[in-house]
Structure formats: C-alpha cells, structure tokens
Amino acid sequence: MALLTALGGLVVLLVLLVLLVTSRYKVAGPNQAFIVTGRKGKAVLNPETGQLSTDLSGQKVVLGGGVFVIPFVQKLATMDLSSRRISVQIRGAVSGQGIKLNVEGVAIVKVGGNADQIRLAAQRFLSQQQDVEPFTQEVLAGALRSIVGGLTVEQIIRDRAAFAQRVADESENSLTGQGLILDTFQIQDVTDDGTYLADLGRPEAARIQQAAAIAEANARQAAEQAKIAAEQEIAVSQRTLALKQAEIKSETDAAAAQAAAAGPLAQADRDQAILTEQEKVAVRRAALTERDLETQVRKPADAERYRVEQEAEGRRNAEIAAADARKAATIAAAEAKAQEARLTGEAEKARRTAEAEATRAEGEAQAAATLAVGQAEAEAMDKRAEAFAHYNDAAVLQMLVEVLPQIAKEVAAPIAGIDQLTVISTEGAGALPRQVNDNVVQTLAMLKSSTGLDLESMVHQAVGRATGGSTDGATSTAS
C-alpha cells in the first residue's frame, strides 16, 4: 500500500513537472522576439570615465526559437518585430528660396533584426510599443524640415528619390539609436499655399501646350492634305466612273434606240409591203373589173350599138334608095310630062314643075335619111343607156378604179420627189401611208365641195349594192 502511494505520488510529481515545463517553455513567432531577463550582465569599463557598468548581455534575446523560462528566476518579454506604416506630414516648411511648402510622405519602420537593436528597442518601447509611431513621425518631420530648408523647390520636385534618401540618411542615426530601422521613405506630395508650384509649371506647360498645338496643327494639316488628296483621288475615280457610265449609257441608249426603232421600221416595211401587195391586188382587181366591164358592158353595148347603127344605116340606105327611086320616077314622069307638054305646047311649064317636084322629092329623101340616122342614133343611145342602167355599179366602180390610182399618184407626187426624209413621230415611219391616205380623202372632199361629185358616196353605194347591203352599212364597212 505504501508502495502504491509512493508510485502515485511519483506520477503526480512527474505530471506536475511536465505541466511546469510545458507552461514555461516558449517558442517565438516569425515576427516576435523573446527577451529573457534574470541574469547579471558583464562588467564593462568606460575608458573615458573609468567607471564600471553592467552591459546588456544578461538580457537573452530569442528570435524564431524556443526558450525555457525558469520560474521565479527569469522573466519573459515579447517584442513585436512587424513593420509599421507611418504617415509623415509637415506644413509651412520653408525651402531654400523662402517658399513655404507642405510635404507629405510615408515611412516603413520596424524594430532592428539583431539582438543589440532588439535590446535597445526593448529598453525604450517594450512597455509602450505604441509610441514607436509618434516617435518616428517626430524624427522624420524634423529631418524633412531640415532638408527642405537646404533645397530649392525645383530640386525637391524634380528629384524626389534623392530628397527622400536624404531624409532617410538624416533620420537614420536617430532611429538606429532607438533600435529602429527605416526600411523605406517615399515623398507622396509637395504643395504650397500660394501659386508658386502652379506658376512653376506654367512655362513648361505653355511650352508643352505650344508644342502640342503645333503638333496638333501639323497633324491636322497632314490630315487635311491627306483628306484632300483622298478626295481628289475619289473625284478622279468618280469622274472616270461617270465617264464610263456615260459611255455605257450612250451605247445602251443607242442600242435601245436602235431596238426601239427596229419595231417601227419593221412595221413600216411591213406596211409598205402590204401597200405594195394591196396595190398589186388593186391593179389586178381593176384589170379583172376592166375585163368584166369589157365583157359584160362594153362589148354587149357596142354590139347592140353596132346592130342598131347597122339597122339604122340599112333603113337610111333603103330610104335613100326609095327617095332616089321616087326622085328618078318623078323626074321621069316630069320629063314625060314635059315631053308631052312640049308636044302640047306646055313644055316649059312642065319642065319647071318637074324640077320643083324633083327638088321636093330630094328634100324629102334627105329629110327621111336624116330622120332615119337620128332615129338610129337615138335608139343606139337608148340601148347604151339601158346597158349602163343594168351595169351602172360595175361601170362606175371601174371608172373610179381607173381614176383613183391617178389621184393617189398625184397626191403622193410631192412625197415621191423627196430624196431623204426624216420622220419625227411617236408612231414611226408607219404614219406615211396614213398621211397619203388622208391626203386622198382630203382630195375627194375638196372635189366634192368644188364640183358636187361625191366619189366616196358613189363608191359606198356601188359597194353596198354589190354586196347586197344598205348604203349606211356599206359606209360603215368602208370606214
């Protein structure tokens, strides 16, 4: 039992020992530095004063490792090694030219990375690490004012990197003595309360603006020249295109005009051919009508006239022969009576009576012959009139057919005398036959108004009777 109690006590002691070791063993982070105090530093003799002092070797610095802190003997402190971004602003800093400037900058500051710098920083900021930023701002502001006072505005503006480097160099000693390191320092902005900085850039701005205006003018001039050249090329191309289009249009219009004129010319040729054929048909029809008239009218009329004339001639010859016979008989009788009168003593008287009787007989014979001739001619005229009464339409139509070509020839004579003729008409050359036809119609109308002879009406009536229709129907058909 006592053994178990001893073993239990040993186990508890071991557990407590482990817990103690675990709780007192510390490991530093990458941005941390452990400072373990509790040992005595080494004695150091000051050669100037001859006094002995204790150095900082008693303060153990641990970076990135672990350390066991002895309870009650040693004490552990932690120093933050992280970088700090510190803004620095000064207003009214007077430059070497007496110009008041406002300067804004930014600094990156951290605690030094070796043991000595960490010990220095721990001595000054371990219990008040938040004071690192104000301290750094004061140091940098002082360095800024000091350096601005020795530079011109142009130097500050034109070479900010050198200006910032001078500030860093100026403040380095002050910061290093406090265990701090200035990583970077940059000048963000430099302004003034007046117009010096604005006026400082005006000449350069004016020069640049002038150069820009000149460059812009040159560019605009070059652009205008290029535009004019392009427009000239476009105009030349358009002119060439317009000329080509005009040439093509001229050729197209000529072809279209030729094609358009081909129809009227062909129609005119067809009309001319039709007129020629119609003229041939009219000539053949007139010849046929002439033959029909010759066969049906003239020859029967001439035969009848010849018969009547022969009969009248026969009767006249018979009458003359009878008259001559009567004359001879009368003369013979008269001579016989004269002979008898002479024999009786009245011969002279009988002779005179016989001569008078003979003269009377001769006159009667001549009158009878003349009467016979007149009767024969009258009878022949009656026969001709009767024949024309039976064949009046054909005779009139034949005479009109004979006369109309002569009228048309006389009407067309002025046109036939033209050597070259240019027709300006929407109807083309086909208007010529219609013009000749209109001239013939006007000629017939003029003949009707001057002589009273209506050839057109006679033709219509003759055609109407020949076709068995009315005059109005024939007129409508002829029209």
From TrEMBL:
Q: Where in the cell is it found?
A: Membrane
Q: What InterPro entries does the record tag this protein with?
A: Band_7, Band_7/SPFH_dom_sf, Flotillin_C, Flotillin_fam
Coiled coil feature spans: 205-240
Residue ranges of every copy of the Band domain listed in the record? 23-204
Annotated keywords: Coiled coil, Membrane
Task: Give start-end positions of Basic and acidic residues composition bias.
Answer: 342-363
Q: What is its main location?
A: membrane
Disordered: where is this region?
342-364
| Family affiliation | Belongs to the band 7/mec-2 family. Flotillin subfamily.
- List the protein's name: Flotillin family protein
Q: What is the lineage of its organism?
A: Bacteria, Bacillati, Actinomycetota, Actinomycetes, Propionibacteriales
